[in-house]
Design brief:
This protein is α/β, with parallel strands linked by helices. It has helices at 22-32, 55-61, 64-71, 75-84, 102-112, 135-139, 156-183, 206-226, 248-257, 266-277, and strands at 10-13, 36-41, 89-93, 118-121, 189-194, 231-238, 241-242, 264-265, 288-291. The protein has one domain (10-125, 162-291): NAD(P)-binding Rossmann-like Domain (Rossmann fold, 3-Layer(aba) Sandwich). The strands form 2 sheets. The protein has a 7-stranded parallel beta sheet with strand order 3-2-1-4-5-6-9, sandwiched between helices.
Length: 297
Amino acid sequence: MIDPQLTGKVALITGANNPAGIGAAAARALAVQGVSVFITAVDGGDANAPRVDDLDAALKEGGEPLYHLLSAQPASRVVESITAAGGRAAWAAVDLMDVNAIAPLFDTVEAAFGGVDILINNAAYSKADTFAPSADAIVNQHSVEWLSAGVPTLTAASHDAHFAVNTRAPALMMVEFARRHVNRGGRNGCIINMTTDGSPAFPSEIAYGASKHALESYTRAAALELGQFGIRVNCVSPGPTQTGWMTANMQREAVGNTPLRRAGMSDDLADVITFLASHQARWITGQVIHVNGGHQV
């Protein structure tokens, strides 16, 4: 029997209010292993948002309306699902564009559960954008349904918003995690950064892809620098994953583009995140782990 040696550890997971999302799935998976999980969302969500009772059925159809509904769910509902199953969880609203919010976030987690052992930088900002002066040029090359309304050309504002949340915030979170870990004499720290298998080049989502590619570079540098303090740093790189945004047609398209012949689900990513946090991954650092069914090889 494998013992992941996670009982009693504390995990901080950003961007975990979508019950079908990777962050929420990771929180549930780690809680089952005895980890106290603290999740964040950009705000409190909509307390009046209808609950999605049959999530599996809803995800089979998916699409933009469902994704917006799931993204509006209060993080408190994810916490409730964990505590109802006997786990320990809490949450806070945090705007990661605000650099002054990061240290107080760690203070809040420490007050609730103690020092953070596992940091999962999962929150992301993603808006379609393009280098092309005409949105139609990019739409005609890509059959993604959400692009049918056109893709805006990159602006300074759209570029900076992506890098603020997807690159700067995780970097500052890693700095704060490392500082506190070293100050309390911690060992066996773990950082997991969520990226995308489109990071080398992501037409129609160029700022998103580039910001995630930069995060992969930060991950490798952090692994080299922080290993001496017992901190491992890795990336998990998903392929197309159904967190609510993929319509039934998109999922069928993913089947054709993925050797394992299905779209990814958040639990697929959560299992790998749990492994990377576990004792079994004690000799793994500085890696980008592609969890995509072979979508990009």
